[in-house]
């Protein structure tokens, strides 16, 4: 029995569906409709909606790390240096839908909705671990600087989503992230 689509193709379709409809409306039926397949094929690869949503979030996180890889290098001095390197990439208009989805996931996690309440903290922890590897200092210093970097970047990105690009750019300048 062969399937028209692979697990990876269905995951890509699910991510595209989430970008259009949002995470709260992600369903087997919507993904299947986007791909022109029966929803049972989606279920074949992702047994539950929670599994599908979790995989979409993990794919989103991986996509962000790949985007940042060329501009964020190891041994940055502190959280501001990391934020300065990342901000030009993260503040592009084409990144806005990614962060809209990320902040939607945060809101769903804050309400305790499964799987977001479990997966989003894991994503944040993975980001902190990733950032800590890029920073200088002992383990405790790297961890503290990584937490500061993530807080700074996420705060600016949330302001960008809610207050607009100009407000986020002004705040970034004031915080020393841009000149």
UniProtKB/TrEMBL annotation:
PROSITE patterns cross-referenced by the UniProt entry: HTH_TETR_2 (PS50977)
Keyword Transport set for record: no
Residue ranges annotated for the HTH tetR-type domain, each copy included: 4-64
Transmembrane residue ranges: none
Organism of origin: Actinomycetospora chibensis
DNA-binding region coordinates: 27-46
One protein family per Pfam: TetR_N
Keyword match DNA-binding: yes
Keywords noted in UniProt: DNA-binding
Protein name: TetR/AcrR family transcriptional regulator
InterPro entries for the chain: Homeodomain-like_sf, HTH_TetR
């Amino acid at each position: 029995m062969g399937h028209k689509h692979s697990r990876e193709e269905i995951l890509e379709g699910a991510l595209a569906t989430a970008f259009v409809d949002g995470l709260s409306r992600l369903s087997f039926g919507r993904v299947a409709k986007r791909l022109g397949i029966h929803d049972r094929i989606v279920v074949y690869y992702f047994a539950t909606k929670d599994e599908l949503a979790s995989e979409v979030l993990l794919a989103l996180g991986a996509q962000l790390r790949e985007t940042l890889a060329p501009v964020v290098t190891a041994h940055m001095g502190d959280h501001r240096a990391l934020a300065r390197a990342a901000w030009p990439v993260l503040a592009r208009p084409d990144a806005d839908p990614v962060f809209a989805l990320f902040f939607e996931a945060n809101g769903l996690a804050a309400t305790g909705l499964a799987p977001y309440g479990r997966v989003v903290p894991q994503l944040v922890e993975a980001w902190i671990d990733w950032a800590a590897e890029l920073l200088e200092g002992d383990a405790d210093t790297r961890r503290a600087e990584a937490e500061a970097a993530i807080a700074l970047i996420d705060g600016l990105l949330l302001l960008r989503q809610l207050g607009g690009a100009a407000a986020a750019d002004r705040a970034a300048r004031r915080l020393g992230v841009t000149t």
